[in-house]
Amino acid sequence: MPQPDHISKLGVPDPATLDTDLRAIWQKCVEKLGFVPNVYSAYSLKPQRLRNFMAMYNEIMLAPSALSKLEREMVAVVVSSANRCYYCLVAHGAAVRQLSGDPELGEMMALNYRVAKLDPRQRAMLDFTWKLTTTPWLIDDADRDALRAVGFDEAAMFDLGETVAFFNLSNRMASATDMMPNREYHRVVRG
Amino acid sequence: MPQPDHISKLGVPDPATLDTDLRAIWQKCVEKLGFVPNVYSAYSLKPQRLRNFMAMYNEIMLAPSALSKLEREMVAVVVSSANRCYYCLVAHGAAVRQLSGDPELGEMMALNYRVAKLDPRQRAMLDFTWKLTTTPWLIDDADRDALRAVGFDEAAMFDLGETVAFFNLSNRMASATDMMPNREYHRVVRG
Amino acid sequence: MPQPDHISKLGVPDPATLDTDLRAIWQKCVEKLGFVPNVYSAYSLKPQRLRNFMAMYNEIMLAPSALSKLEREMVAVVVSSANRCYYCLVAHGAAVRQLSGDPELGEMMALNYRVAKLDPRQRAMLDFTWKLTTTPWLIDDADRDALRAVGFDEAAMFDLGETVAFFNLSNRMASATDMMPNREYHRVVRG
Amino acid sequence: MPQPDHISKLGVPDPATLDTDLRAIWQKCVEKLGFVPNVYSAYSLKPQRLRNFMAMYNEIMLAPSALSKLEREMVAVVVSSANRCYYCLVAHGAAVRQLSGDPELGEMMALNYRVAKLDPRQRAMLDFTWKLTTTPWLIDDADRDALRAVGFDEAAMFDLGETVAFFNLSNRMASATDMMPNREYHRVVRG
Amino acid sequence: MPQPDHISKLGVPDPATLDTDLRAIWQKCVEKLGFVPNVYSAYSLKPQRLRNFMAMYNEIMLAPSALSKLEREMVAVVVSSANRCYYCLVAHGAAVRQLSGDPELGEMMALNYRVAKLDPRQRAMLDFTWKLTTTPWLIDDADRDALRAVGFDEAAMFDLGETVAFFNLSNRMASATDMMPNREYHRVVRG
Amino acid sequence: MPQPDHISKLGVPDPATLDTDLRAIWQKCVEKLGFVPNVYSAYSLKPQRLRNFMAMYNEIMLAPSALSKLEREMVAVVVSSANRCYYCLVAHGAAVRQLSGDPELGEMMALNYRVAKLDPRQRAMLDFTWKLTTTPWLIDDADRDALRAVGFDEAAMFDLGETVAFFNLSNRMASATDMMPNREYHRVVRG
Fold first, then answer.
1. Counting Cβ atoms within 10 Å, is residue C104 exposed (0-12), middle (13-18) or buried (19+)?
2. What are the pLDDT digits (tens) for B129-141?
3. Which of C137, C140, C143, C144 is best to mutate for the E interface (most E CBs within 10 A)?
């Protein structure tokens, strides 16, 4: 049985009808990636909300941060693993494979990060990620102290916390809309 | 033992050092509310991230939406109840009391929304809110159909989903930073 | 939509039909509190069971104990928070606010006690309360040792254990009957 | 390794030092049962609390009720199964075997009540018992309606609710004190 | 109401129709135990699968192992307790009582192993058993180190892990088929 | 940081030291697959146990069954998804991709089977798989009836139940030993 070919169960507007700024972004995506990420298409149902989402996404994932780009993608995937979010696991799992050049690392982040070989800083980062995602009410000074012990200062904790927080948002948008990832992601860096 | 007087465990910059646009917002808050919401102060550690957060917040909570302002605040509180987020329960619980003029409704949303007397549309809205927050991976067509059955169309489902998603972000920022709400909220519309 | 005005979904007898001893208690409540707590009205469906409930309640909450009256109310609220019991959170949250004179402490106990500033003895007391409520089967010598380390002797552990146990009873009576708290509680000590 | 021979980890007073009324009860227990139930010994650390506990226990378990004595014991065991309470499972499991004359029924109640052959009324009674014990905050009108559909009226729901509530209390007293059941229970009606 | 008298909800073939090797085993069971364990009857629906199951069972439970036969049965019961598997709790609870001669030990394993008096090696063995059963994804080097600290070498960890794994299989066969244990088990070593 | 290159944290014997029958299997694996599956290497620590494991595996996964080979692999992956078992998700995810020729189907089974487009029979099969894996004690006649309604007869339910049961065993062997999958699996049918 062929798998779903919808982008979002809430429907997606015809890209030709979008505002100029969005159409420019669509075109840039096609040039750089070969496709428009489905999360943009799905979100374009409400153009201003898409703009806000992209602004936040770009700042958290691409602007300077105490976390490397690979680490931010690792966090994205571990949040999505806890939430079993298909869209984000596929899209950001591909990003981990691409940024690390390691076809296994993305799988480990997606399936169970505890099996990966990580330095203590990254392991603490992902343990915090899991706990803040699944039981945020249990986060305590002891958890922040565990991050400090492996080198996180206040700014780094802010960056980590916001990255975790952001993917808890985007996972839920994906689940609410049954968002399907672009098929291109599946082929990225498979070893 | 006097309760905590920190705003965020990650520290807060001196407001006098903030950029002009943020200082203008601070001033407007003081004029309208009598205080600057602590979430702004906590987030001002990273000014651009605060700007993105405010843009998204304002669009979701204040711009036109299929949900009334009161309903959006009810959703905010129910998400925060599931995540046991002290900051958001206090701040948005006050908003529910204020917008509804009903001192009990905010308490019910915060403590257990199932005891409230709600029309079927609002009950379905909050059941979806709880499920998308606590087990997003179980959201299915049946859940979207339950919303449709009480009058939600695609755009309304988008608005509801994004409101739920956003407070799953902000709850985690509050937990990551141990954010404390302004004391003024406690006094709002207590009956 | 106006909130529920029932006392118990199982119905409540006309107070005028109650036995003399209960009517005397009703009158005393009105004199001292201004109202009869709804838990008494709800329980008066079975007068002898109400008498037993009041005897146990009075002994645990008002008689000499290793816990101060405020601490007993804090325990009551934390049990009720774990069980998300609307009635007990409202009624005993008001008691925490009243006994402490601190409008925030009751909110913290109700919403997430881990954000409160507590001395080590009270924090250990509430950690035990949460664990005995949510996973009683995991209580072990290590948990009793943690209490001893902050000054609990055998009698104090008995008092703490029984207070936790009692509110696990009363939370379930409230949930079984959908008991609604008197509206007066909402206004108590709001700062 | 011989199994524990303590009665309660909080210690037990010398029975000879107890008040007359309690010593009379001790003697009656020995006459009727051949032993004093350890829950009485454990609770005698605080005599007035024991008196209240016995009053409530006797009223719920022995006085007229909409539930038969066997049904009340079945409820006791199912609550204790959900809470994995060793003391109550042993003591009340024996009571189910004795009152039913069925050596398997007590085991089924203790280990997984869903495997037992029950009439619809008893199955609904135990489903309510499990839910009110494990997730009391989810109890709703639908749950009360399910009881009504199999013949429970308001008084019967009160009796059921209070029986469930009471064993949620006594399970936690047993766990808090690591109470050990009298060995005699193990031999009762084994087939 | 008499308890279920089926062996498996999927039906059981007439033993007379079984292959010679199986009939020989049936006869040996009757000679040694007085009955054919119902798990064999239930599994005989697919004879080759029964042969594989028996081969694995015999090797794990009866062949040389780093765990004593009693310890293997204790592990079997604790796995089954976590999974609330009626069949295995009854059948292997009887085995614990028989091998230990201790009528309480089997009950403790079945109802809550944490109340039993165990040496540190056995307690660590059962803590590992519980964790590998309920949250296998959290098993980490720290868990293997805890076993090493009480004397488990690699071979012993293999034996323990496979015993836990095997009963996670057999518990699910029992639940899938609603397998009922032979009534004879209930009478074994009751003290 | 390069990912782990161990096969099992309990160590693996030199293949040259294995018995003739096992060495023959090793050779056949190399001929057919290009490598020896790490689960065999890990299990060869105890040769007789490996033989039993292979016999059971071959019968369940390769012998005639009411489930197609692809369906058996889908069940394997969904069990492993519930248990977050890295080894089995990688190895059997590859098998789903290979047998279906669909690079997405394996990812969906591994990450969240609810997003896949399935016919009602397969969806019911996987819902049963998930429930029997995560809460076997809740399996009831209603669950078997749901399977019957989509065409499962008794023999098919046996096959399904045993497949689920078997991967609950092998997931736990993999977690107990921190078993790493062969890297070859990652490249299979990626689209």
1. buried
2. 999 999 999 999 9
3. C137
